[in-house]
Amino acid sequence: MAASRQTLLIGQAVSSGVARGTAYVVSRADEAFWTAPASRGHGGAGSEALRRAAARTREQLARFQRELEARFEERVAQIFSAHLALLDDPGMMGAIEARVAEGVPAPDAVREVLGGHTRRLDESPHPAFREKAQDLRDLGRRLLLNLEDRGDDAADHRGQILVVSEILPSDLLRYIAQRASGVILAGGGVTAHIGVLARSLQVPLVAVEPEPLAGIENGTPLLLDANQGTVLLHPEPAAIEAFEGLLEAPEGEADAAGIVSETRTRDGACVRLLANIGLVSEVALARRFGAEGVGLYRSEIPFVIRQDFPTEDDQVRVYRRVLEGMGGAEVVLRALDVGGDKMLSYFPQADQANPFLGLRGIRFLYRNPDVFRAQMRAMLRAGEGFDLRILFPLVAAVDGFLYVREVVAGCADRLAAAGVPHNPRPRLGVMVELPAAVGIADELAAVCDFLSIGTNDLVQYMLAVDRTNARVADWYMPWHPSVLRAVRDVVEAGRRHGKPVSICGDMAKDPKLIPVLVGMGVEALSVPPRAIPSVRRVVQALDAGEARMLARRVLALGRLRDVTEALGIDWRPPSRSRG
Predict the structure, then answer these.
(1) Which terminus has fewer CB within 10 Å in the chain: N or C?
(2) Residue spans per domain, the chain
(3) Residue 410: CA atoms inside 13 Å, Cβ hemisphere, count?
């Protein structure tokens, strides 16, 4: 009997979802195109062949645009506008045509001209230029395939799981348009906005170490479980059969969840389950999984996936669709949260030694008042007739919140003076993510309308652990006594001032921590739409009285070992050899 080739790789779950398919190694495929021999035996290698290939490429890109525009409101199809602009660039195509006129075969001319440009752009430290290199690489690959009458190969990754060494927002959009089943990131860094975008686009994405995938061949059968962060190579029939059940499970959960109007513990305590979303298309997903509202709309996603700043009117249209789509239910729009690992490729900033401690969140808005005011005007205009709520990220001081409140009031006054319909009195909230905000939670609760605890960043800043750095992942501990006590302090500050407090981030969907949060008195959890059914089951199985006793007991503990034992968390101290 032949030895089994089945191999399990354990990585980092970046988004949720599962996929079955065959491997397609993107970097290897690209390299093969750029280093191919001069002659491949196809007939037409001259100017006419180049013109036909360019025309077919243009048709494919236009089709991708139409498909993306039909699925997403945020004009994400702009990514293919950049490709089309390159295709119509007389300097770029003119250089290729000139080499063909000199007798160079068209495929070689494409490799020579575009390959030279991509190499120079790849060496740039600026994300915008590296993203341009990706555009050129993709365009060149399409031209080369169309020169060989294999254009459909460039247009369809259906049934394939892509293996990539780096990934940009534009790449994810391309993979969606090309119908990829899932993505494996081998060795590249995972930024927060890539994770958020992957979840919003519903692309299963897992990050793994590069060594186990170094020899993977195109066509290798794969099972990708982005819920657990695992990749199974050469799966056995029994594994495939078990996996088929996972592929069917989400729809069933959604159907069952959709009939639930509220969520209560066994003894009747109400816990509202809200959705975290970043795209208009996720509104339907939130409703399908039984969300009672949107606790966090990440307004940066429409900024991240574009090639330039969205106009004020573009933003109004997107925000309005989110508000209308939720049918009057609570919707919290978070102000633009970029910086750290969420950079805008078209808006280069000066290099920062530590971006997470640099110009991000509300600080970015301070330094870019035109961007800030345009977004506030858009939110006010979109919020006409709705219970508009705007949340501000990375607030560190009462003075900072009072400043943004003045900016919003000024925007409302100017809209009123111009006779523009808008919401003149939105509710304004503070996102508690910094230890500084925890320390002044009472003062913040006194001046804001609501609070939202962003637990991912709160853990990062309280424990000084970069949540995107796999080398220190063992030190990222949401159950740390100081983190739990910080959450309690904010919840109690909100209660004292009669201000609602919600929890978002990974803590809000952790079945080990939900009982403690409910026991603290948390009344709203905001989680990804697909997590709502499982969170609902955890809450419904709880007794609020017992949860309060558990919370009191856990909050009195000062050692990690004792907390993890009390909560049933499988934890071992980080190895000193890895420190």
Answers:
(1) N
(2) 262-578
(3) 11
* Tens digits of residue pLDDT in 15-71: 888 899 999 888 665 666 666 655 544 444 688 899 999 998 888 888 877 877 777
Mean pLDDT, residues 556-560: 96
Q: What is the mean pLDDT of the chain?
A: 85
- How high is the pLDDT of residue 420? 98
CA distance 213 to 184: 10
Dihedral class, residue 260 (left if φ above 0, else alpha if ψ from -120 to 50, else beta): beta
Higher pLDDT, 285 or 391: 391
φ, ψ (nearest 5 deg) of residue 234? 50, 55
What pLDDT, in 10s, does the model give residues 143-165? Answer: 888 887 765 555 578 889 999 88
Choose the catalytic residue: 83, 422, 448, 504. Answer: 504
**How many Å apart are CA 89 and CA 123, to the nearest integer?**
22
Report d(CA 557, CA 480) in Å as an integer: 10
User: For residue 405, what is the enclosing H or E element?
Assistant: helix 398-417
Contact 72, 316 (CB under 8 A): no
Secondary structure of residue 505 in the 3-state scheme: coil
pTM exceeding 0.90: no
| pLDDT of 266 over the 50 cut | yes
> Would you call 157 a catalytic residue per the annotation?
no
Cα(193)–Cα(528) distance, integer angstroms: 14
Hey, what are 447's tokens?
């001046």
- The DSSP 8-state label assigned to residue 231 in this structure reads E
- Strand locations in 97-189 (E): 160-164, 182-186
Element (H, E) at 410: helix 398-417
**What are the strands of the beta sheet with 160-164, ordered from one edge?**
7-10, 230-233, 221-225, 18-25, 160-164, 182-186, 205-208, 12-13
Contacts of 409 (CB under 8 A, 6+ apart): none
Binned at pLDDT 50, 70 and 90, residue 255 comes out as very low
User: How many Cβ atoms sit within 10 Å of the Cβ of residue 493?
Assistant: 21
CATH H superfamily, domain 262-578? Phosphoenolpyruvate-binding domains (3.20.20.60)
> What distance in Å separates the CA atoms of residue 197 and residue 32, rounded to the nearest whole number?
29
Instruction: Name the CA dihedral angle for 240, 241, 247, 253, rounded to a multiple of 10 degrees.
Output: -150
Report the alpha-carbon distance of residue 436 to residue 450 in Å, rounded.
17
In 3D space, the residue among 270, 269, 252 whose CA is nearest the CA of residue 261 turns out to be: 270
Q: Of the listed 83, 157, 193, 422, which one is catalytic?
A: 193
Q: DSSP assignment of 47-113, as one string?
A: HHHHHHHHHHHHHHHHHHHHHHHHH-SS-TTHHHHHHHHHHT-HHHHHHHHHHHHTT--HHHHHHHH
Number of Cβ within 10 Å of residue 156's Cβ equals 14
Map residue 183 onto helix, strand or coil.
strand
- Residue 270 annotated as catalytic: no
